[in-house]
Write a structure and sequence with these properties.
By secondary structure, this protein is an all-alpha fold. 74% of the residues lie in helices and 0% in strands. The chain is built from seven helices and no strands. Helix 5 runs antiparallel to helix 6. The longest helix is centred in the middle third of the chain and has 25 residues. It is elongated, with a radius of gyration of 17 Å. The N and C termini lie far apart (57 Å).
Length: 172
Amino acid sequence: MRGPVLSWDARLSGALVRTVPDAVTEALSDLGNVPVALPVLLLAAAYAALRGNRRGAAAAVVAMALVPALVVPLKEWTARPGPLEPWAAGYFPSGHTATAFVAYAGAALLLRPRLGRRWPAAAALVLTGATAVGLVLRGFHWPLDVLASLLMCTPLLLAVRRSCRGTRRSSG
């Protein structure tokens, strides 16, 4: 694979990979693991459903279920090698980033009526950003893998946001 964008991606990755200890970057990367991120979303969805936002909760769970349906075919189709494993394939897009983004931002959208806009959004940004940074710094993914996942999952989260509108119960 060649081209100006991929060359930039490779140079940026080369400058960043392993600049932080592996123990730190692996811990950050793990925030995008399904056993870590999914329970956050499921707890937020259960809370939202109990508070009357069943439609938003269902939309968030469906969005998470769609992540592998979007990610896996692209990984198969592109067969992009990894930054530290040029013999391996399936790095584009980043499933960990997609999982983190949909789980944490979805939870933030569901918790907004109770906690306000800033705190949940900030938490989602920090957790998703930490995952993405960890993946790139550890060399598990190229920067474009991470960016593609964020862009690919944005429509899913816009649908969750739309589903949450008008379903909020006043807290009492």
